[in-house]
């Protein structure tokens, strides 16, 4: 007990130090303390390992909650806190033991910590509890068992030691092999150098020999020359003497001749005498860079010994040795270049630095990677109209276009960037005209809000008045027939231009609540007043019977492409426009309940597929209310409690194809099913974490086959049950933020084998395959820009695949395509019509009406 | 029992008994060392002053990696505590950290009593009342304290 006591703050005592050496998780002395990047230290195991779970990519520091990436080897990869280890290695100070014990010492009669008897207790040396002797005895016995167990473990571990011994032998053999290999390398290298030296010697020798021969020859030549001279002079002398004797003094000419000859010969001798004696050429042996070479030889080559790690390919291997021949060059012979002083080899390469994972960065920091949506399109004043004269049919104009420079794009990740070509074949019915408009919209980069209208951009070309179906040409070619008075040069958007088409329902006088301006009807031409940014594009009406639409246009790179749309797609496009129009005007109706039966904290909302009744979970009143699709009260059932037919904060509701009402009874951790009149049918589920158990289930949905999908919120999963409550499977691979994992999922919706879950804690919506549970896709990141989500709650999916999400953190409802492409958003915070305070459930009807649970305003709004 | 109580729980229990937090008494149950009976005194200067509130605290299997489960057994009028005694406290849910201990949790709960947070309610109309008419709410809280949480002499 002594060690556990606190010392007064600030006193530098052993007790205080002991406190600081304690791991905050196990409250014990640090064992293998590991230092996290935030400078907090914890034991490696079981503390950090328990936190890590063996699989996580990041862990959160228990002290400062900072998130850290776990290195590759797990928590072992964190550095050891060497400083702390130093403290820990110190022998336990005596002063620790000598601290006055705070608790009552052993002999007092106190309650035994184990059996509760009031007898005299001793302190257990193992766990510092006060226990009575019999309990102590049994405790010790247990410890004995434990020790025996440990011994068994030890014995089992012995083979491991032996195996490591084998490793040692292997190690020795390997070393021997490597040594011999290195030796061979060295020998070869040095032998080679020696050979080179010898060759040099031979060469020098031969040089010498040739030199000697040269000299000898020269000497010989010289000797001969001299001898010749001697002979000639002596013979001259002899002849001259004889001639001289024969001559008398009167032969003047002869005497003079002779004198001259004598002097000549004398000259010769004198010359020979004065000539310096032939000096032999000198030969000495010189070595350049002798010292350098000497040093090189002394340092010639070395062995590098690596530790166990493999050394990567070594760059510097001498020309005569192939390092690659050595299979595992842990010991290798490094050869310097000739003349290299240092003679050391190159270093080893470090393992490449791992760049941080961007996806983790983004999700951890929560900052949005995408710039916010551009709200104002810079206007490019253009007033243009392009018309195409239809072939014999009235012309149809498109609503005004606005042209916009290409740079002003707002990069939404999930919005396609390229506009595809499209070429229109137009039918003349109103619907189809509408569809064409929608098709054009469809082909754009996605709708953006601008002022009162919705802007779409697409690349457009002029329309060729002479277009005929099947013609290979694009509709859009520079047309010559623009309206008189318009500026010709500006009247055509150029190839590759971005063009905005503004569907401004406010601008057209006769707009209806729904999507298109009435001016889109066939047979009427309209010219929108050219505002600063308007232009009209008109398409020919050519084919009355087409069941499909071809859409092709220029995508900006000069390539024309064509796509065929069939009516279905056209219908989808129509739906798109419906969603985009939502929120522009007040909600169709607001459901608050009757005077005597008001809604209070409405949460889940569901629409019956049979009669379009709206079933609302009146959460705080612990009941369920039913209204018709116009908001008139129909019936209510349920009361507070835990019995059959009673609720405790009902949250999600759903209606089966036979009209049965499924209610998620959140605080009772179960799901109840009622018939269409509100009579209790059956229930399933209980609190827990096993399969089939629920923990604060929130949303619920049913598919056409009657399977019930329950969003098991506190268990971070979605469970699938049969209609009678039998457990089928779990969707969601567990808690977390990776794909396929969920974090506090709230609501769920299902359509056509897709299960859509609002993964609230991860600020995204995930789609799973309903049959296999496989994660299909997800969209949404945390943020407030369009398309971003914050704590999404209710989800609804309509039969065309549009997903409506209650973005509760941003107090708005957003609509997406099922591939995650953002469509539109509406609503804000407030109590007025069209605003929300606390978004919960969402339901979508077959006619694309959206019911939204507005919790704090105690109402459900219909858009 | 599988392997016995983790050492940490034993240490915490010991420390709780050796040095109780002022105003809080936590006693492990006789038959289950992971279950604690807790008495929290209403903090001074709060409408709960003078009352003694019973709580139960349970340490689940994964403790300390997962948060303890705490519940009020005494009826209390508080915007973050519902009628079943469940507490809306972030450290009991997602903000739990293994560095926190039983004493810190109980201290936080005591602090929650001093400083109710009606902006983060637990499906509660108490929160609404607190925002609409705080004085009256405090009055009701005092009444409930007198009625349901009468003070007893604290066990030593």
UniProtKB/TrEMBL annotation, chain A:
What is this protein's record name?
RING-type domain-containing protein
* Keyword flag Zinc: yes
Listed Gene3D superfamilies: TolB, C-terminal domain, Zinc/RING finger domain, C3HC4 (zinc finger)
A Pfam family recorded for this sequence: zf-RING_UBOX
Q: Which residues form the RING-type domain?
A: 23-65
| Region Disordered, residue ranges | 469-497
Give the keywords, sorted: Metal-binding, Repeat, Zinc, Zinc-finger
Gene Ontology MF terms = ubiquitin protein ligase activity; zinc ion binding
The superkingdom listed in its UniProt entry is: Eukaryota
**NHL repeat extents:** 599-630, 634-677, 681-724, 736-771, 776-819, 823-863
Recorded hits in SUPFAM superfamilies, A to Z, give: Calcium-dependent phosphotriesterase (SSF63829), RING/U-box (SSF57850)
Composition bias, Polar residues: 483-494
Q: Choose any GO biological process term that the UniProt entry carries and state it.
A: proteasome-mediated ubiquitin-dependent protein catabolic process
UniProtKB/TrEMBL annotation, chain B:
Enumerate the InterPro entries for this protein.
Answer: UBC, UBQ-conjugating_AS, UBQ-conjugating_enzyme/RWD
A GO MF annotation of the entry reads:
transferase activity
Q: Which SUPFAM superfamilies match?
A: UBC-like
This protein's UniProt keywords: ATP-binding, Nucleotide-binding, Transferase, Ubl conjugation pathway
Q: Which SMART domains match?
A: UBCc
Glycoprotein among keywords: no
* Nucleotide-binding in keyword set: yes
Question: Catalytic positions?
Answer: 88 (glycyl thioester intermediate)
Task: Specify the UBC core domain's residue ranges.
Answer: 4-150
> What GO biological process, any one, is recorded here?
protein ubiquitination
- The parts of the chain that form a coiled coil are none
Q: Known PANTHER family for this protein?
A: UBIQUITIN-CONJUGATING ENZYME E2
Similarity comment: family membership: Belongs to the ubiquitin-conjugating enzyme family.
**What name appears for this protein in its UniProt entry?**
UBC core domain-containing protein
């Amino acid at each position: 007990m002594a060690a556990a006591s606190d010392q007064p703050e600030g006193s530098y005592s052993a007790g205080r130090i002991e406190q600081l050496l304690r791991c905050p998780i196990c409250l014990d002395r640090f064992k293998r303390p590991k230092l996290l990047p935030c400078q907090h230290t914890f034991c490696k195991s079981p503390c950090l390992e328990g936190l890590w779970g063996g699989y996580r990519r990041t862990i959160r520091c228990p002290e400062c909650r900072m998130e850290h990436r776990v290195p590759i080897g797990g928590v072992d990869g964190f550095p050891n806190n060497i400083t702390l280890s130093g403290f820990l290695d110190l022998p336990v100070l005596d002063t620790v033991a000598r601290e006055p014990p705070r608790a009552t010492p052993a002999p007092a009669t106190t309650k035994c910590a184990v059996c509760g008897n009031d007898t005299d207790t001793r302190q257990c040396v193992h766990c510092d509890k006060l226990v009575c002797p019999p309990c102590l005895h049994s405790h010790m016995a247990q410890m004995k068992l434990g020790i025996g167990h440990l011994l068994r473990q030890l014995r089992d571990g012995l083979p491991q030691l032996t195996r490591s011994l084998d490793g040692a032998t292997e190690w020795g053999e390997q070393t021997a092999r490597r040594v011999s290999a290195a030796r061979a390398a060295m020998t070869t290298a040095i032998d080679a150098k020696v050979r080179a030296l010898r060759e040099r010697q031979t060469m020098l020798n031969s040089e010498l020999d040739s030199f000697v021969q040269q000299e000898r020859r020269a000497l010989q030549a010289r000797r001969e020359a001299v001898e010749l001279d001697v002979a000639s002079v002596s013979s001259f002398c002899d002849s001259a003497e004889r001639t001289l004797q024969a001559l008398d003094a009167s032969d003047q000419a002869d005497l003079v001749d002779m004198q001259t000859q004598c002097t000549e010969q004398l000259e010769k001798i004198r010359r020979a005498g004065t000539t310096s004696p032939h000096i032999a050429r000198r030969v000495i042996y010189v070595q350049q860079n002798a010292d350098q070479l000497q040093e090189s030889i002394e340092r010639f080559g070395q062995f590098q010994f690596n530790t166990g790690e493999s050394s990567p390919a070594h760059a510097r291997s001498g020309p005569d040795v192939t390092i690659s021949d050595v299979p595992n060059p842990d010991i290798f012979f490094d050869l310097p270049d000739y003349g290299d002083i240092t003679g050391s080899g190159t270093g080893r390469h470090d393992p490449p630095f791992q760049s941080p994972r961007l996806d983790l960065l983004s999700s951890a920091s929560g900052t949005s990677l995408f710039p916010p949506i551009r709200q104002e399109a810079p206007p490019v004043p253009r007033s243009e109209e392009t018309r195409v004269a239809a072939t014999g049919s009235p012309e149809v104009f498109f609503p005004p276009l606005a042209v916009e420079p290409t740079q002003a794009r707002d990069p939404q990740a999930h919005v396609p960037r390229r506009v595809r070509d499209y070429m229109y074949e137009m039918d003349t019915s109103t619907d189809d005209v509408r569809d064409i408009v929608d098709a054009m919209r469809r082909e754009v980069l996605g709708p953006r809000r601008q002022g009162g209208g919705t802007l779409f951009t697409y690349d457009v070309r002029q329309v060729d008045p002479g277009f005929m179906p099947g013609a290979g040409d694009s509709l859009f070619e520079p047309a010559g027939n623009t309206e008189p008075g318009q500026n010709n040069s500006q009247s055509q958007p150029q190839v590759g231009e971005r063009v905005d088409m503004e569907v401004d329902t406010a601008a057209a006088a006769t707009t209806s609540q729904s999507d298109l301006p009435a001016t889109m009807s066939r047979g009427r031409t309209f010219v929108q007043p050219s505002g600063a940014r308007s232009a009209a594009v008109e398409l020919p009406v050519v084919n009355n019977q087409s069941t499909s639409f071809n859409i092709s246009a220029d995508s900006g790179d000069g390539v024309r492409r064509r796509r065929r749309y069939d009516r279905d797609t056209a219908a989808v496009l129509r739906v798109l426009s419906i969603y985009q129009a939502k929120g522009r005007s007040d909600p169709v109706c607001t459901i608050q309940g009757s005077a005597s039966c008001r809604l209070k904290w409405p949460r889940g909302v569901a629409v019956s597929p049979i009669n379009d009744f709206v079933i609302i979970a009146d959460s705080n009143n612990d009941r369920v209310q039913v209204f018709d699709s116009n908001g008139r009260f129909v019936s209510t059932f349920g009361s507070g409690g835990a019995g059959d037919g009673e609720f405790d904060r009902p949250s999600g509701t759903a209606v089966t194809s036979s009209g049965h009402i499924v209610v998620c009874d959140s605080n009772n951790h179960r799901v109840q099913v009622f018939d269409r009149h509100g009579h209790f049918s059956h229930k399933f589920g209980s609190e827990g974490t096993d399969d089939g158990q629920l923990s604060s289930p929130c949303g619920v949905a049913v598919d056409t086959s009657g399977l019930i999908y329950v969003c098991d919120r506190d268990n971070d999963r979605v469970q699938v049950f049969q209609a009678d409550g039998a457990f089928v499977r779990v969707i969601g691979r567990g808690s977390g933020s990776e794909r396929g994992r969920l974090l506090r999922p709230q609501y769920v919706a299902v359509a056509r084998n897709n299960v859509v879950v609002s993964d609230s804690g991860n600020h995204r919506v995930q789609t799973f395959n309903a049959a296999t549970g496989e994660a299909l896709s997800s969209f949404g990141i945390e943020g407030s820009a369009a398309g971003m989500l914050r704590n999404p709650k209710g989800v609804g999916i309509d039969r065309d695949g549009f997903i409506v999400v209650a973005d509760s953190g941003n107090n708005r409802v957003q609509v997406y395509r099922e591939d995650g492409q953002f469509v539109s958003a509406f609503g804000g915070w407030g109590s007025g019509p069209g605003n929300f305070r606390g978004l919960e459930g969402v339901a979508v009807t077959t006619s694309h009406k959206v019911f939204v649970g507005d919790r704090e305003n105690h109402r459900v709004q219909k858009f | 029992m599988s392997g016995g109580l983790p050492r940490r729980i034993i240490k915490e229990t010991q420390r709780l008994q050796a040095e109780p937090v002022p105003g809080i008494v936590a006693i492990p149950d006789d038959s289950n060392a992971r279950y604690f009976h807790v008495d929290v005194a209403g903090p001074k200067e709060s409408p709960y002053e003078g009352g003694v509130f019973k709580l139960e605290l349970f340490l689940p299997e994964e403790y300390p990696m997962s948060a303890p489960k705490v519940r009020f057994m005494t009826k209390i009028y508080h915007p973050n505590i519902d009628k079943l005694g469940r507490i809306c406290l972030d450290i009991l849910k997602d903000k739990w950290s293994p560095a926190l201990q039983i004493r810190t949790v109980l201290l936080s709960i005591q602090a929650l009593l001093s400083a109710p947070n009606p902006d983060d309610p637990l499906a509660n109309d108490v929160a609404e009342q607190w925002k609409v008419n705080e004085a009256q709410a405090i009055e009701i809280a005092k009444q409930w304290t007198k009625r349901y949480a009468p003070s007893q002499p604290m066990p030593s």
